[in-house]
Design a protein that fits this description.
902 residues; alpha+beta; 12-stranded mixed sheet; 6-stranded mixed beta barrel
Length: 902
């Protein structure tokens, strides 16, 4: 085969290969990036919904608490309990049924107290739990049998964990008398430990929410009294005996766990509606006692949907820019192919060829490069299996392929108005940037882009994030940043000529030949080769947008962690002894600590408008706290000068006013008057207090109030030992008191920050931003390289002539830099500025509060690291220009210089 088309392919193999490679990479990314992002969304959905993955509180539980007589009628034996489990599972809506695991049924008594004298009260539940019985092995005694003969007055047989027996001093055969307040007339229940067991696998996720079956737990009950609490296991015989005995309250639970790794984003969206339907189904059942659905899914789904909606909207803005950059690079390659074909096809046109005859070979060449490459890239993306394939990938590949196939034909056909002129490579006049005058159609197209950009931004701001969720992702809205970038690129391209003309006139009178020739060549590039300016501008805008939002998210999460903790570490309890500050300061990593007292008081009736409103009172040395906490704390006002002065939150000021003294009436102290001396700003407010909560800040040693024990301690330091801090807190709680059943709450800012940053959806957003920035940077560099390589031959002829006149190697390198510098600097700087402004332009769409615990992220700025990366990209562009120049160095002797370009 040696026909005209084959010879044309051989002659243009270099641009065809470049076009094919770029098409393959673009198709691969168009498939891989959406699939990988969708897989990240699915992982986040599974982490939010998957039961075992989040500790078991997000699965479905059908529960009821009924007297044993009612249980006898509906669930007379264990077989009925098992049948009901299957019944509940079959009643699940389709999505829940598809992702649910084997039901877990259990029957549990109310909490009972062991009678006797012990160092700590002993509390116990009796429970039948088939899953637990199947996951233990007996290490002492015999497994309870199934014989009910003569057992009416015998103790109830139970099994206990070996850890329970060892810790509390029980052995096989011991009897325990349990008092049950739910029993009529308070009749006690006698149980006998028939066997001891150990778990077959203590790390089995099944035990995660059943820790009391493996060992006793120390809890705080009543007025701070510590007690040992555990769960003892019943067998089917024990359950039947409970039904036949005195009336007791029994808790029935059917847990319908969700298999980890089975929930997708689409499943999560369906679950929200199905959960309401399942609740209605459960409450409407008449064949069993009244039950209700208990789950934490509502809140988890709400949080997930908020984060997912924000991620989809923000990433759609970035991905549209990424697609535009890829399209720009492909169009650049296709346009340069058309430019190389213009002399050849111009000769054909001059010899009488019709437009159809010259369009066919151009379209055939483009199809030869694009179609196989697009198919191969799509196939590789699917084979990579980075996530579920997305329809948007097919649309993206199709759009890119059509654009690349059509553009060379349009350029070549449009340029063949004069066959002879086209054959010579001209277009009837100066077509370079500095001299070209835009036609009316071009002005209309440019104006259309500007109008579409303005309309897109207006719709984006008006509709906002909620509108995006209601209407779906509108292509015009998603493309608004791209339209802005193209519009700005057209404006920069329009104004780009004027500085070049001025620089040319100034340098013409100077003595630097290199500078004058470099600016002249930069200004005399054809308009088609100016496309890199728009591509680079879009790439820089996408990178700037990603860097700005990513930095804002990181800073917002750091701010949210501080607003939650209030310092590097925070200790809180119902009461702490005065020595707690010294103990905290002695913990490794702590460099400072101050005490605080947080109590609840009532506002005097007159001050609160006749109502007795509860208000939080925070007693703290505010100046010392501001110095210790630093950062956000410095935005708090200084402590008022008066000894009885108080600062009021906005809500407290609204309730009580700031013009007269306030009377605070603590529950366990005498009333005290304080004088309002100022008002706190709603943001940031005081750490740990909701923005709309009424609270006042008063001096730590308020006159008229006896010095009491602190309830909180704020600590400062790097690398604070959290375990040591907990030990210091436990040692500081007076005997007989507690907080939250754990002896106090210790939180560190680093732990709070980790909880925010390690959320699955946050990782998806960070990875998408990082990957998108790298991809657009690579495309920008490819655009520069493509222009440099393809234009190297024409540039070589000019440089060769200059070398004959004495151009040195060093001057040649400087000429290469000057030629590329105007386009690169104009595009990158304008694009980067647009990227920094885009979050503010898009307005309510870039709302990151769902990732920061509801706190605003503040001003969107970019950090110094991103600026260094930008400078590195510009330096890399300069290196690329020098590398291409060195590769095409024509210093091969005088004959080689004069024949350059032949």
């Amino acid at each position: 085969m040696n026909g005209p088309f084959t010879r044309l392919v051989r002659a243009q193999w270099a641009p065809l290969v470049a076009l094919a490679v770029l098409t393959l990479l673009s198709a691969l990314l168009a498939v891989a990036v959406p699939a990988r992002t969708a897989a990240g969304y699915d992982r986040a959905a599974d982490a939010a919904v998957g039961g075992d993955a989040v500790g078991g509180d997000a699965d479905l539980r059908v529960e009821a608490s009924v007297p044993s007589a009612q249980g006898r009628r509906s669930i007379p034996d264990i077989q009925a309990m098992t049948f009901q489990s299957e019944d509940w599972q079959s009643a699940l809506p389709p999505t829940f049924r598809a992702v649910s695991d084997i039901p877990e049924a259990s029957i549990t008594t109310t909490r009972m107290a062991a009678q006797g004298t012990f160092e700590k009260p002993r509390l116990a539940y009796l429970s039948w739990d088939l899953g637990a019985l199947q996951r233990v092995r007996y290490v002492a005694g015999a497994e309870p049998g199934d014989d009910l003969t003569d057992q009416k007055d015998a103790p109830l047989k139970v099994t206990a964990s070996k850890k329970y027996a060892d810790k509390l001093g029980y052995k096989v055969g011991d009897e325990i008398t349990l008092g049950d307040e739910s029993v009529e007339r308070g009749a006690p229940l006698r149980v006998e430990i028939a066997a001891l067991y150990e778990p077959r696998n203590a790390s089995d996720p099944y035990w995660r929410i059943r820790a009391g079956m493996l060992s006793p737990e120390t809890i705080v009950v009543g007025d701070g009294v510590e007690a040992e609490q555990a769960t003892l296991l019943l067998d089917p015989v024990g359950y039947r005996r409970l039904l036949d005995g005195p009336g007791r309250t029994l808790n029935y639970s059917w847990r319908l766990p969700i298999r980890p790794g089975s929930v997708s984003t689409a499943d999560a969206r369906k679950m929200a509606g199905e959960l309401t339907a399942f609740r209605a189904t459960v409450s409407g059942r008449a064949d069993v006692f009244p039950c209700q659905v208990a789950t934490a899914l509502d809140g988890r789904l709400t949080t997930f949907f908020g984060q997912n909606r924000t991620a989809e909207t923000i990433l759609s803005l970035m991905f549209s820019g990424l697609l535009a950059v890829a399209a720009g690079v492909l169009l650049l390659a296709a346009g340069l192919l058309g430019e190389r074909l213009r002399p050849i096809l111009g000769t054909m046109r001059a010899r009488g060829a019709a437009l159809r005859q010259i369009a066919v070979p151009v379209g055939g060449l483009a199809a030869l490069a694009v179609l196989p490459a697009a198919a191969a890239g799509t196939g590789l993306g699917l084979l990579a299996d980075l996530g579920p394939p997305q329809w948007v990938s097919a649309y993206a590949v199709g759009i890119l392929a059509v654009l690349v196939l059509v553009l060379p034909i349009v350029l070549v056909v449009r340029g063949q108005g004069s066959g002879l002129d086209a054959a010579q490579g001209g277009d009837g006049g100066r077509g370079d940037i500095a001299a070209a005058r835009p036609s009316k159609p071009r002005l209309v197209v440019e104006a259309l882009f500007v109008v579409l950009a303005v309309i897109g931004v207006m719709l984006l701001r008006r509709r906002g994030l909620e509108g995006q969720a209601e209407h779906g992702t509108d292509p015009l809205i998603a493309a608004a940043p791209v339209l802005l970038g193209v519009a700005l690129g057209l404006l920069v391209l329009r104004g780009y000529a004027y500085p070049l003309r001025l620089a040319g006139r100034l340098l013409r009178r100077g003595r630097s030949t290199v500078a004058f020739v470099g600016v002249a060549r930069a200004s005399r590039q054809h308009l088609v080769t100016a496309l890199p300016l728009v591509v680079l501008l879009l790439a820089a805008a996408v990178a700037g947008f990603a860097a700005t939002v990513d930095t804002a998210l990181r800073h917002g999460q750091e701010r949210a962690a501080w607003l939650e903790v209030g310092a590097d570490a925070h200790v809180a309890a119902e009461e702490l002894d005065p020595g707690v500050v010294a103990r905290v300061r002695a913990v490794r990593g702590v460099t400072g600590a101050i005490p605080a007292r947080v109590t609840t008081a009532r506002l005097g009736g007159a001050e609160a408008g006749g109502t007795r409103t509860e208000i939080t009172v925070i007693a703290i040395d505010l100046d010392a706290y501001r110095e210790l906490a630093g950062g956000e704390a410095m935005s708090l006002p200084s402590a008022p000068s008066g000894a009885s002065s108080a600062l009021l939150s906005p809500e407290a000021a609204r309730l009580a006013g700031t013009s007269r003294p306030l009377t605070l009436e603590p529950a366990s102290a005498t009333p005290v008057k304080v004088n309002p001396a100022g008002r706190l700003d709603a943001s940031p407010g005081f750490p740990g207090q909701p923005r709309d909560a009424p609270y006042v800040i008063v001096p730590y040693r308020l006159p008229g109030v006896p010095a009491g024990a602190p309830t909180d301690v704020f600590a400062k330091g790097a690398g604070i030992d959290a375990a040591g801090l907990r030990a210091a807190t436990t040692a500081s709680i007076p005997k007989g008191t507690g907080f939250g059943g754990s002896g106090g709450v210790v939180t560190t800012r680093s732990a709070a920050l980790d909880a925010l940053t390690e959320a699955p959806m946050v990782s998806v957003v960070h990875d998408a931003f990082a990957g998108g920035a790298l991809v657009v940077a690579a495309y920008g560099l490819l655009a520069v390289l493509l222009v440099l390589v393809v234009g190297a031959r024409a540039r070589g002829r000019t440089v060769a002539n200059l070398e004959v006149l004495g151009l040195s190697r060093r001057q040649r390198r400087g000429l290469a830099l000057i030629e590329i510098a105007p386009v690169t600097l104009s595009a990158v700087v304008a694009g980067w500025v647009l990227g920094l402004l885009l979050p503010g332009i898009t307005g309510p769409v870039v709302d990151l509060r769902s990732y920061t615990g509801g706190h605003a992220t503040g001003t969107l700025v970019v950090d110094a690291t991103s600026l260094l990366v930008l400078a590195g990209a510009l330096l890399l562009t300069a290196v690329a220009a020098l590398a291409v120049d060195a590769a095409f160095d024509s210093r091969r002797g005088l004959g080689g210089i004069l024949r350059t370009g032949d």
